[in-house]
TrEMBL record:
The protein, known as: Glycogen debranching N-terminal domain-containing protein
Classification via InterPro entries: 6-hairpin_glycosidase_sf (IPR008928), 6hp_glycosidase-like_sf (IPR012341), GDE_N_bis (IPR032856), MGH1-like_GH (IPR054491)
All copies of domain Putative glycogen debranching enzyme N-terminal, residue ranges: 15-186
Domain Mannosylglycerate hydrolase MGH1-like glycoside hydrolase, residue spans: 383-546
Pfam families named among the record's database cross-references: GDE_N_bis, MGH1-like_GH
Organism classification: Bacteria, Bacillati, Actinomycetota, Actinomycetes, Micromonosporales
Length: 646
């Protein structure tokens, strides 16, 4: 069955809970529902007044976790062309469920007596079943009474004021002229432990001549705060709503890393949560290996075709090492980083255990591809042939090089042995990469296949090599040139239009992913390709404005841009593109252990003059203004850091 489309859905999220509905607010089936911990708490919620459904006229997202739906009720109230009776639904997600407040307003000149009713059903479906378009096929009426699934999942519904009779959510109400009546419904999954929402939301904010930057950063920060979830005492960003509202290796690490301007707490929590599950044995059922960082975790009652703890990722292990190093550079205290060093060393040992390049072979029970483009057709030759494994992806070699250098830096910083060996290992990897990956057209192959043949399509993967140190200056310039060729009006395409498999509305073969674009953007800045970086920022802002500044997981970037119908929104690493744009604009490079903070803003600024407040680094906050010409004024900075401008 087909995966449900989401591009016209309204999403309210407070991890691990998500509301999904169309613009009417009614839940009718398909992907609609209220979900908690990858299970559907509510599959149907139909509100009627006098037996009729209200006519929707407006919906407004009021925060990442809440929305307001406004509808009118023709035929009720005064006669005439103007609607005089409205129903507003105020929806909010909470950690174990959600609330819906119904407000019936009578704007007529006469009293109104009507019946308000809410039909509530659940099917207890797992998120995997919903994603496959299946659900469970049967529902249970839970109108005002607790309900339980065969596996012990329990749902309760509460109403204030109470309904007229037990077991049915119905109220006979009289509303005076120019007055309102309201009822608050609360839907709760009661078989899971209460979760305390992570406090202290980010204070990062920006004011720019180009106000789109303000909106992008504000919305991204709100969405990241809403996607904060906990693994015991460890906080992390759940990957995305609704399909991936859980701990992922690659996604959660990248989101924490791109989001470091919000502080180091989430990066630290993500590292600890993943370290606790770092591989310790060889298990072909789950792709676990000693030292390896996992791909994803699911609740046991919601696991679908993958195991509840699954390790089928080739890049998360290197990203784990570099995220630890970056968090330390941004001010993670040494007392929090040091306990992670044994896990860093095990991750490095996993990298070194590969022969030649870091490669993977898909298993029959897992994902076909183990890089970030993990769809079955995600790695192709330019002529459209699917690449056959084992595959060594280009960006993974860049991650591994950077991880070895970062790991050596950490080992030196904490007086642990082995740093020189890892620098030598990185140098050898770079030499092998230079000999094997460069295609005749002057760009790195996306991968080497199982026969050692270059997979020669031009892809956005090459952008991930920028800023890793793997490339020489000349090689970096050539990659930047090809990345410019991949740039659409709204971001960096995942595949060049010249490739046989190109499709602007595919998952990985021509679409635009905001996180992918943000990674390329930061690499362009680090390697000095500043005009290219400015062009990418303008494209990101153009895209953000078309999506009400809540960037989706991916979209078609040729014209429009066009929504990818099944895309998650919000997605953590897409939301983190906003803070990442600020890092790029400021040319910010933090080295808290050395007591340094470097600023080299893009000049001229692609967003005009701007001021950034509340950017966290080194235990303090940065307040800085940048003129349209790139001149810097520091209003306040973290104590103990020397700010260097260039």
């Amino acid at each position: 069955m087909a995966q449900p489309y989401l591009h016209e859905h309204v999403t309210c999220v407070a991890a691990p809970a998500t509301w999904l509905s169309d613009h009417s607010g009614q839940l009718r089936g398909g992907a609609d529902g209220l979900y908690v911990d990858d299970r559907r708490v509510l599959s149907r919620l139909i509100v009627t007044v006098e037996g009729a459904e209200p006519v929707p006229v407006q919906v407004r997202r009021t925060s990442a976790a809440s929305a307001r739906f406004t509808a009118v009720l023709p035929g009720l109230g005064d006669d005439g062309p103007d609607p005089t009776v409205t129903l507003e639904r105020r929806r909010e997600a909470g950690p174990r469920g959600g609330t819906e407040t119904l407000i019936l307003t009578n704007l007529s000149h006469a009293a109104l007596t009507v019946e308000v009713a809410a039909t509530c059903e659940t099917d207890y479906a797992t998120m995997g079943a919903v994603k496959d378009g299946r659900g469970t096929g049967s529902t249970v009426d839970i109108g005002g009474t607790p309900a339980a699934a065969d596996d012990g999942m329990r749902v309760s519904v509460a109403a204030d004021p109470a309904p007229d009779a037990a077991g049915a959510l119905r109220w006979r109400v009289t509303v005076a002229p120019r007055d309102s009546w309201s009822v608050r419904l609360r839907f709760t999954r009661t078989d899971v432990a209460p979760i305390t929402r992570v406090a202290e939301p980010s204070r990062l904010r920006v004011t720019a001549d180009d106000r789109r930057l303000d909106a992008l950063v504000r919305t991204g920060v709100e969405d990241l705060d809403a996607l904060r979830h906990t693994d015991g005492e460890h906080v992390y960003y759940a990957a995305g709503s609704p399909w991936y509202l859980t701990l992922f290796g690659r996604d959660s690490l990248w989101a924490a890393r791109l989001g470091l301007p919000l502080g180091t707490a989430v990066a630290a929590g993500t590292l600890r949560a993943l370290a606790a599950r770092q591989g310790v044995r060889h298990d072909p059922e789950t792709d676990e290996e000693p030292g390896k960082i996992l791909h994803e975790v699911r609740p046991a009652d919601a696991a679908h075709w993958l195991p509840p703890v699954y390790y089928g990722t080739v890049d998360a292990t290197a990203l784990f090492v570099s995220t630890a190093a970056d968090a330390y550079r941004w001010g993670l205290p040494a007392t929090e980083l040091e306990p992670l060093l044994p896990h860093v060393e095990r991750a490095l040992a996993w990298l070194a255990g590969h022969d030649g390049f870091i490669a993977y072979q898909s298993s029959a029970k897992g994902l076909a591809n183990h890089g970030w483009k993990d769809s079955g057709d995600g790695v192709q030759h330019a002529d459209g042939r699917i690449a056959k494994g084992p595959l060594a992806l280009c960006e993974v070699q860049g991650y591994a090089y950077r991880a070895a250098v970062d790991g050596a830096w950490l080992l030196d910083a904490f007086g642990r042995p082995g740093a020189a060996g890892w620098r030598d290992w990185a140098a050898g990897l770079a030499e092998r990469f230079r000999a094997a990956f460069w295609c005749p057209g002057g760009y790195p192959a996306v991968a080497l296949d199982g026969a050692g043949e270059q997979v020669d399509s031009i892809t956005s993967n090459i952008g991930h090599l920028l800023g890793t140190g793997l490339l020489t200056a000349g090689e970096s310039a050539r990659v930047a040139g090809h990345l410019a060729g991949l740039r659409s009006p709204f971001g960096i395409r995942t595949l060049a239009p010249s490739s046989a498999g190109y499709n602007f509305l595919s998952y990985h073969l021509g679409s635009v992913w905001p996180h992918d674009t943000a990674i390329g953007l930061l690499g362009l800045v680090r390697d000095g390709h500043r005009q290219d970086a400015a062009a990418v920022i303008r494209a990101v802002l153009d895209a953000a404005a078309r999506f009400d500044f809540r960037l989706p997981e991916l979209f078609g970037g040729d014209d429009g841009p066009a929504p990818y119908p099944a895309s998650c929104r919000p997605q953590a690493w897409a939301a983190a593109a906003g803070p990442a744009v600020l890092t790029a604009l400021l040319g910010l490079d933090a080295d808290v252990p050395a007591g340094l903070l470097r600023l080299a803003p893009l000049s001229p600024s692609p967003v005009g003059a701007y001021r950034v407040r509340g950017l966290r680094v080194g235990g303090g906050e940065l307040d800085v203004s940048v003129s349209a010409a790139g001149a810097v004024t520091v209003h306040d900075g973290p104590a103990g850091l020397t700010i260097i401008q260039s």
